[in-house]
Structure formats: structure tokens, C-alpha cells
Amino acid sequence: MSESKALRSGVGYTLGNILIKGINFLTLPIFSRLLSPEEFGVYNVFASYDMILFVLIGLALHTSIQSANLEFRGKINSYTSSISLIYILNGLVALAVAVLFRRALGQVLALPPASLTMLVLGSFSTAVIQLYNTRISLDYSYKKYLLVSACSSILNITLSLVLILTVFSENRAMGRIIGASLPAFLISVVLLISFFRKAKPRISKTYWNFGIKYSLPIVPHGISQMLLNQCDRIMISKMVSDAAAGIYSLAGNIKLILVIITESVTTAWTTWFYSQMDKGEKNAIQKRATQLLLLFFVLTSGLMALSPELVQLLGGAKYTLGKYVAIPLVLDAFALFLYNLVVPAQYYAKKTTYIMYGTVAAAVVNIVLNYVFIKLYGFVAAAYTTLASYLLFAAVHYFISGKLLKFFVVPPSRMLGVCAAVAAMAAWQLLFVDSILLRWGICAVMVIPVSLYLLKQMRKDKASV
Q1: How confident is the model over 254-297, as pLDDT tens digits?
Q2: 360 pLDDT above the threshold of 80
Q3: Which of 58, 67, 64 is nearest to 94 (CA)?
Q4: pTM score, two decimals?
Q5: Which of 163, 166, 215, 319 is 20–30 Å from 441 (CA)?
Q6: Half-sphere CA count of 443, side-chain side, radius 13 A
């Protein structure tokens, strides 16, 4: 029953995420044409800072929910309500700093001073929404998750378009920033009220000590992970131009297709992984993990084959250079999936310090490589330096997780085989980036047999239930 529920939840998260966040993806051509590459770059640099600040405001406390549910059985609503007060406190401090030092911070971050308030509100909202999503994942409540995501996406797009076309027609980047941040903040307020209705908010030394002790080592990991995800855009903006950051960001949006699916699957995978570990089901974990690995080989290969055409579709002629970075950026998303596949082992073992070490190392490598190679070869180099860092990121956590579990989530021979196949596919796609027939043809040759194998396995599993 647990596996069936996790499967339904995973499918629900995935399909709903594709439909809801697909709205954002489908409206990307609208925003890429309404905004110049420079304005598009400014907005994406703002979004990068938003993802970094959300870690500081939330202190990664959402990662403690799974373990708190076991530690404080039957009291998870009280725990969630209590630690949400930490979010409010941190948000108020960040807002005060943003208002008092807006000019100096604006210069350092290369953002309009007026956008800093929106930056705090957006980051606070992201942290609260992440806490809510983690809490409801315990109940596999994907419908609630989808409702929140749908409201956020629709309001984000609608308000952004209204502001860009009216009040902020002369400052469209600011219109996009407000349109993205304000709806999320309103939703976060509603979610906080829902926490407080289920359990009266109170400062609990026991809850706060547990949450902070568990999550604090993850904060450097979270910041490093966000730097790994976002610093390429920030560094391109500062070292090349906002326009280059805009082109790079548009190409980076293609990998979001894979990231969305990864996030959806991970939500159900983590909860199911915990339940299987409690029962000592090593073989079940390895079997399902291998199937997920093959599924993502299919998805990654298909997305790489389509990426040059997607760049043209999403951005038009002024973003054409993006096709040279789209394929390595899709590989980033595949490496991120590998990380999400194995990292639940470290959370389960409550060894979050290991997570910090691995991610900090990858982030430092990324910053250094970006600094060196962006200077030498321009913004295209950032895609490859970031890919190298992501591969290091995934590899480090793969071996750490194997050490903690005393077995590998995916056996090394299977992991190496699939990764080699993905690398071969990427090399072919890059070699023939201007030939649609050769790219799509080799993709079909490699993907169809694997897809048929997965379908056969699914039928076999269904028959054995």
C-alpha cells in the first residue's frame, strides 16, 4: 500500500507539475519578446539572488520535517507551526536590512534599490512555500501542492503581464520582479495562517533546538547549492553583460523541464525511501532507483535532442547563441537528478554535515572555474564549468550515501553504464547541433529500446502485485 500510494503521489506530482509549471514555460516566449535580453538578464539575476536568500531566511528548516515527524510522533503540526515563527523573525530582520541599506546593497548586487524589498518578500515566500510542501508530502497530499503551485503560477504570470504592459512599460524588468514576488508573498501569508489554525504558534525550545540542530549544517549546503545553481548567471552579468546573462538564462530555462520532473519524483521518492529503509528493503530501493535512472536517461536524451529548436522557439533570433549552452545545461539537470536520487540516505542517517562538505566543495570549484573560463571564453564557457561542478557534486554525494548506507542506491556498474550512455548522447548532440535529422535519429535509436524495456518492467511489476 505504501509503494502504491507513493507511486500515485509521484505520478500526480509529476503530471501536475508539468501542467502547472508548463504554463510558466509556455509563457516564456511572451516574456522573452516583451523584455529585451538586458531586461531578461536583470530579472533572472534577481531570481538567482532570491534563491540564495531564501536559504538564509528559512535556515533549511524544511529539511527537518521528515525526521521531526518520527521524533515527535503525532505532533508534527505543532512542530511546523512553531518553527514557522523563525521564518517570520528572519524575514523581518532581512527586510530591515534591505530598507536601511538599499543603496549600498543595490550597488553590490547590481540590482535596482527598489527591487530589494521585493527580493526579501519573494525569498520569504519561497521559504514558507517550501516548508508547506514538505509538510504535506508526509501525507502524499499532492493535490494541495498542485493547488498552491497553480495559484502561484497563474497570479505570477497575470500580474507580471499587467504591470509590464501598463505601469512599468518603461521599466519592464521591475514589472516582472514585482509580478513574480507579490503573489508569492500573499500565498505565503495564507499558508502561515493554515499552519496556525492547525496548531497555535508558540516558541518551543525543544522544537527550535531540534530543527536548528538538524538543519543548521545544511545552511552552508543550501547556500552552496544555490550558488552552484545560480552563480553562473550572476557572474556572467558582472563579467560579460546583462544581455549575455539573459541569453544564458533563456537557454537554462530548457533544463527546467527536467528539473520540474526531478522535483516531482523526489517528493514521493524521499518519503518512500524512508519507509523502505525502516523495513530494510535494500533490493527494493536499488530496483526502483535503477528504473528511475533509466527513465531519466530517456528524458535527458530527448530534451537534449530538442534543445536547439526550443531555444529558437522560446527566444527567437536574438537568443540564437543559447543553443550552444542548452545541451550542457540539460546535463546539469541530469546530474541534479542523480544527487536527489541518493541524498535521502544522508538525511535518513541524520548525517547532514556530509551534505554540507560535498556541496560547498562543488560550489567553490564552480566559482573558481567560472571566474577563469568566463574571462577566457565568454558566457558559453560557464555552461561547461557549471556542468563539471555538478558532476563533482553528484559524484561526491553518491559515494557519501553509499558509505552511510553500506550499499549504493544504484550499483556502480549500472550508474557508470547509464552515465556513459548519457555522455555519448550529449557528445553526438553537440557535434551535430545544426543537423536536426542526425540529432533526432540517434536519439530515437538509443531511447526507444530503453523505453520499451521500462514499459515491460512496469507490466511485470503490475502483474506481480
Answers
A1: 888 888 888 778 877 887 888 888 788 888 888 899 999 999 99
A2: yes
A3: 58
A4: 0.75
A5: 319
A6: 22
